[in-house]
Fold these 2 entries.
Entry 1:
Amino acid sequence: MAGERWREAPLDSLTETPITYGVVKPGGHDDATGVKFIRAGDIANGRILVEQLRTVTRRVSAQYARTLLRGGELLVSLVGNPGQVAIAPASLKDANIARQVGLVRLNAGVDTRFVKYFLLSPAGQGSLGAHSRGSVQQVINLRDLKTVKIPLPPLSEQRRIAHILGTLDDKIELNRRMNRTLESMARSIFKSWFVDFDPVRAKAAGQPPPGLKPELAALFPDAFQDSELGQIPKGWRVGRVDDLAHINARTLGRRDTLGIIDYVEISEVMRGEVGTITRYTRGEEPSRARRCLQHGDTVLSTVRPDRGAYFLTLYPTESLIASTGFAVLTPKDGNWAFLHAATTQPGFGEELGRLADGGAYPAIRAEVVGGRELPIPECPQLTAAFDRVAQPLFLKANANRRLCSTLAALRDTLLPKLISGELRVPDAERIVGRVV
């Protein structure tokens, strides 16, 4: 064990400044003029979900100047899902944190990444979990966080361990950035063709659509017509999502012979990324585990639909089952890239959000998703042409996600062995060198 090989020290003895938390009463604010603001729910899977950060006013943030980030601090969630840990990236310099987040500035004698990885290890999570309190909402008190014991190998070994694990995380993050680029390319093409109608506008102005081969450009009309959605390309129609897709086509029943369920919950999904998939023996799964998935399905949350909880299902296992809180859209014509891009455009989710009702968790019925109107080309060759361009981009992103899962599994296997001293650093370096 680590304690037998290395000395241990309480976390608060390793800090440059006292461990503390941030803004107590942020108030209602969220616009580009404010200060980015990290809540407990913004920390997951060892990183900060930068894409979902909200803001507080500069006046409120200034009252908590002690927690303005420099970049490089360790952040620990204290409430809700306590024990989530991440390091503040340099890009969040001058951002602030909520009271639900503990701020740990380590001194120069300890490697911040090593401490992060220890706290994410089973031993570290066990230490943090032992201090969580509350029967309804779990909480880690700041005074308890300060007492968590950290193993301390020599600083050079801390850095080598952190480098090995960080190499895997860096590769995972590189793939995530690549995915954002790939999917942004597909969405940009969709927006140009089917939202902004750029090729139609070019032809209406007597110009060839830039960047399109003549045979593809010929599929676009050269004029507009009025519709209940405003002007749309001539010859197109206003249709509904359920013209393009079956809604919740397959539901898990008692007669299904699955022995295991790999369950996707709404809270684990954000903008195409699926976090933890929980495996259950059949019969032990939550009652919400009912939505069967197949290749090409777009899966959208009907709870807080403007949050961006959606993903694309590509080559799933038979055991992959989603919550009934999702609407599953199965394309009728096989053009799954067109359907996915159409129903995950920012404006689509925002409109569903305006239609949602309820208290803390506003929701819509799946039929509302199916009833959303959009302009649809009458020329099927055009939607098929988009899929020929966009499907390879989404498929590459999916392959990257599978690689990320493999790398994350390797990291999670090496992590406790390195932290405990069971696996030597040179051996781990050889293992990682074969896959990165």
Entry 2:
Amino acid sequence: MDADKQRAEWVRVIGASPCPVCGKPDWCAVSASGHVCMCMRISDGCANRLANGGFLHRLDRQHRERCTYSGAHVTRRDPERSDLPQLAAHYEHCAGSTTLGVLASELGVALASLRRLRAGRRSTPPAWTFPMVDAAGVVIGIRLRTLAGDKYAVKGGREGLFLPRALRGGGALYITEGPTDCAAMLDLGLDAVGRPSCTGGAHHLVTLIRRLRPREVVIVGDDDDPGRRGAESLAVILLAHSVQLRVIYPPPEAKDVRIWKIAGAIAADVEALVTAAPVRRLRVRRAGKGTEGGTR
């Protein structure tokens, strides 16, 4: 990972905002998510020892609230409206099997997978709906997909995860971009959750992974520049929570997993990519006078 990408993930400590672990104004860094610190001095209580001799510490809420680093926090805002769970349920009820079967056929995914994602239909103006939830499964937003394929969201909501019903747990959890790629993974019999975009949903995913405790997390990025940047950025954040993690991309001719699945991919093809992908490790290197973080 190049230095510019690394700087987007870690914020160096300064005199006005010292290290929350050792209290010193230099040499250490805090993750862009605000959840972990790379302290170069104190080992007591650390989660991992780093390759450069530093120590990775998880930050509790009290520590995070004391941090004032620019970019060190993910702002969490509640939805502006309280009726989103009821609205999502109404849209789901309005999408009978025949109606939702139209979308399934259009996307090349199974009706059952769309049902697991609680897909629905809005009548005016017409659009397909997918609820976005927090890590506890509470609806905090609703993604809209117009009949022409344009995507936006119901006003007053927040970005969340596309979390299917009846995840088995205990094995690998696949993280995709969006609900339709998630549906494709469900078609293959794999546990999957969709993030709202190639850059969104990180703090919800951290909480969800803590709750589900999967054996392994596999980030499935789209095979384009934004998809790869988003996958690598998420990998840095999740690695800070000691998750066994791999990152995979569909073959170049497929671009995303839904297209790959339509082209004939089966679960064994996905699992072969996972087996071939290295397990990611958090590493730290010195760059000038500061500390930079990344993955390998």
